C-alpha cells in the first residue's frame, strides 16, 4: 500500500471527467457540499461551458488537464471509453472510479470478458500511476442527490469503497461523508467485486452496519 507526504489533509476541489448523468449528479452533490467543482469532457472547455452552467450550476468547464489538478478526480465516462483518458494526467492523483461493466446492458467489451480481474483492477492497470478508489458505482444518480443525509443521521445510507492506497481511501472517505453518506472501507481494489453489478450491495440501499455485514460474509470462505 502506498502513501504520500504531499496528500491534502482534506479535499477542497473535485475534478470530474465526464458530463453525463452520473458526472453531473456527482458534481451537483459536491457543489452542495461546498466543494469547488471542475468538469471536463473530450471537447474543448468553451464548447461545454453552457452545458456545464445549466447542468451543474456553479461548476467550471475546464480541460481534462485542468480537471486532473483537483484534489480528487472522478472518472464518470462510459467504461468502454476508459482508454481515451491520458494516464499521464492522473499519475499520483486520487481517482474515484465510478464505472461499471454490465454486459447485459452495455454489451460485451473484450477487455473485460476474458479477464479474472475486476473492471477496476483492469482500469488501474491502464492508469498505472493513479491511485484508484472504487466507489459511487453502486448508487443511482437520482438516489445520489436524494438519499444524502447529515453525519450521524439515523439509518444513513452507506457507500463502499475499495482501493490499494490508504491515503487516497481516507481522502475519498471524507468526500463520501461530506456529500451525505457513510463510507465503508471494503478493502483492496479487488474487493470491489463485492459491489459490482448483480451483487447484493449493488442492488440495494444499506446502512454502514448492514454493508459491513455483507462484506464480511463475502470474505468468509465457503465451507463444504
Domain count, please report it. 1
The first-level CATH class name:
Alpha Beta
Mean pLDDT comes to 93
Looking at CATH, the homologous superfamily is NAD(P)-binding Rossmann-like Domain
Tell me the structural class.
alpha/beta
Question: What would you say this structure looks like, in words?
Answer:
This protein is an alpha/beta fold and 224 residues long. It has a single domain, classed as 3-Layer(aba) Sandwich (Rossmann fold). It is 35% helix and 16% strand. The protein is built from 10 helices and 8 strands. It has an 8-stranded mixed beta sheet, sandwiched between helices. Strand 7, helix 8 and strand 8 form a beta-alpha-beta unit. The two termini are 33 Å apart. The N terminus is likely disordered.
SSE blueprint:
Layout: E1 13-17, H1 21-32, E2 36-40, H2 45-55, E3 60-61, H3 64-67, E4 72-75, E5 94-97, H4 103-106, H5 110-113, H6 119-126, E6 131-134, H7 141-146, E7 158-163, H8 166-178, E8 182-187, H9 200-203, H10 208-219
Parallel strand pairs: 1-2, 1-4, 2-3, 4-5, 5-6, 7-8
Antiparallel strand pairs: 6-7
Summarize this, please?
This protein is an alpha/beta fold. It is built from ten helices and eight strands.
Keywords:
10 helices; single chain; alpha/beta; 35% helix; Rossmann fold; 224 residues; disordered N terminus; eight-stranded mixed sheet
Amino acid at each position: 500500500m502506498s502513501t504520500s507526504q504531499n496528500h491534502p489533509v482534506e479535499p477542497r476541489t473535485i475534478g470530474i471527467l465526464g458530463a453525463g448523468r452520473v458526472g453531473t449528479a456527482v458534481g451537483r452533490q459536491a457543489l452542495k457540499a461546498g466543494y469547488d467543482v471542475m468538469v471536463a469532457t473530450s471537447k474543448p472547455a468553451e464548447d461545454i461551458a453552457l452545458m456545464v452552467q445549466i447542468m451543474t450550476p456553479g461548476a467550471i468547464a475546464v480541460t481534462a488537464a485542468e480537471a486532473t489538478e483537483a484534489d480528487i478526480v472522478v472518472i464518470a465516462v462510459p467504461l468502454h471509453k476508459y482508454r481515451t483518458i491520458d494516464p499521464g494526467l492522473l499519475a499520483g492523483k486520487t481517482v474515484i472510479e465510478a464505472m461499471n461493466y454490465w454486459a447485459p446492458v452495455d454489451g460485451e467489451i473484450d477487455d473485460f470478458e476474458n479477464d479474472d480481474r475486476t473492471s477496476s483492477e483492469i482500469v488501474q492497470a491502464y492508469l498505472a500511476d493513479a491511485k484508484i478508489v472504487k466507489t459511487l458505482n453502486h448508487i443511482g444518480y437520482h438516489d445520489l442527490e436524494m438519499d444524502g443525509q447529515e453525519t450521524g443521521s439515523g439509518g444513513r445510507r452507506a457507500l463502499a469503497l475499495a482501493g490499494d492506497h490508504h491515503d487516497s481511501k481516507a481522502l475519498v472517505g471524507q468526500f463520501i461523508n461530506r456529500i451525505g453518506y457513510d463510507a465503508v472501507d471494503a478493502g483492496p481494489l479487488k474487493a470491489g467485486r463485492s459491489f459490482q453489478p448483480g451483487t447484493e450491495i449493488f442492488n440495494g440501499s444499506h446502512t454502514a452496519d448492514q454493508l459491513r455485514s455483507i462484506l464480511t460474509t463475502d470474505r468468509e470462505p465457503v465451507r463444504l
